[in-house]
Amino acid sequence: MGPSDLNPTTTRSEPAPPGAPANPVRRVAAASLIGTTIEFYDFYVYATAAALVFPQLFFPSDNPTASLLGSLASFAIAFVARPIGSVVFGHFGDRIGRKATLVAALLVMGISTVLIGVLPTHADAGNLATVLLCLLRFGQGFGLGGEWGGAALLATENAPPNRRALYGMFPQLGAPLGFIIANTLFIVLATTMSDETFTSWGWRVPFLLSAALVLLGLWIRLSLAETPVFAKALAANRQVRVPVAETFRTSWKILVLGAFSVMLTYTLFYLTTTWSLAYGTSPALGYERQDFLLMLCVAVLFMAAATPLSGVLSDRFGRRPVLATAMLGGAVVGLLTGPLLGSGSTALVMVWLCAGLFFMGLVFGPIGAYLPELFPTNVRYTGASLAFNAGSILGASLAPYTAVRLAAAHGVGWVGAYLAGTAVVSLVALSLLRETRTADIDD
Q: Which one, 61, 171, 315, 349, has the greatest CB density within 10 A?
């Protein structure tokens, strides 16, 4: 543990050693933003397909609810894979460097996504098609398990001490951008081809187009130098032999609390996107697919606006006050799920979607700086990645699945209670973590 672990308010401005690499601000922003945009595009393309077409194509059943539940269960596989990816990529990120590890993570995620686009369906290959889909879904999660932590460290370890949350916001902004790109593409496909054509082959297009985005991301990231903070640690030979073991030995409490503190982030996002899409286009609300996708594209603009806002606010007032406010807002959104989303009124449904995604952005933005700041340099990649992705298991792996079951058995209001409950859990975990706005991360 470094000095900042003993005194989180300590700040020093020790210069980087001679020859330490420096990355221009624009290049850092582009490299951290493009990677997570691609990753969330890939992830949400799967989430959308899992709600719209995978139930029929890969999980056929006489019971439509059973098919949807099977498809959403495959969606959860990636969240199990993400912590495993965090350990593997975190090991190399903490021992070899952030840059090379980020490139490898992007390739794993991108290749898995493209291969989903050429899979045979259950009608062609039977259960083998379902197995292959689940394996590639695991690959998506494995790659994303190493992507987010590296992108967050790329931003924060290049940032001035008083701007780390603002810089750390760039990888977070990739989530709404990836969402908008994916949804816009699905809207174009839905409005230019029949349901039969989309189900036959149109759904493959977003997966195949991921290849072009991955090539763009690789081109940007290969132009980067290593982060100054890690370059200094490398020069001082401060790496540890097994970063994951060191993380659990020195920072296990922070790891656990960090995971629970981001639990709401995932629950809020995937309930307001993946589950709401399935619910909104079901007989319960009866929206056309392209209409509800358009509503989500409008609502996610509120997330895109709240993400940089939260970065600015948390640099000024601290990470914990902004996060606590966002968590309270998420709880209110949960309690209003029945009256707003359940009403079926387009205006009230839009209010619920916009509010949910606004607070999602407000809680998501500071995480890019907050989690890395909680861990010392020699285990920062592993620790931040594990906390973030363990939170995905707690908050998102079963969120759409659970919501479908709750709505079917007890009504949509119970889904809201589930969301509010995760907000309370995250708020309690946050209250047990320290403030890091003025902490020194160069240890």
A: 171
Phi, psi of 438 (to 5 degrees): -105, 10
Query: What's the rounded Cα separation, in Å, for the pair 178 and 198?
Result: 21
Mean pLDDT for the stretch of residues 129-150: 92
Angstrom distance (rounded) from CA 364 to CA 262: 8
CATH number of 23-431: 1.20.1250.20
Q: How far, in whole angstroms, is CA 341 from its chain's centroid? A: 24
Place of tokens 């190493």: 146
Indicate if the pLDDT at residue 11 is higher than 80.
no
Residue in the block written with tokens 């021992």:
95
Q: Using an 8 Å Cβ cutoff, are 147 and 221 in contact?
A: no
Q: How far is CA 288 from the centre of its chain?
A: 27
Look at residues 69, 72, 65, 70 and name the one whose alpha carbon lies nearest to residue 50.
72
The string over 364-387, giving b where at least 16 C-beta atoms fall within 10 Å of a residue's C-beta and e elsewhere, is bbbbbbbbbbbbbbbbbbbbbbbb
Residue 324 CB burial class (10 angstroms; 0-12, 13-18, ≥19)? middle
Alpha-carbon distances, residue 87 vs 149, 155, 289, 378, 396 (angstroms): 11, 20, 38, 14, 19
* Predicted TM-score (pTM) of this structure: 0.84
Q: How many residues does the chain have?
A: 443
- What confidence tens digit (pLDDT) does each residue in 196-219 have? 898 899 999 999 999 998 898 888
CA distance 385 to 371: 8
Instruction: Please give the span between the terminal C-alpha atoms of the chain, in angstroms, as a whole number.
Output: 8
Confidence of residue 399 (pLDDT cuts 50, 70, 90): confident
- Per-domain residue ranges for the chain? 23-431
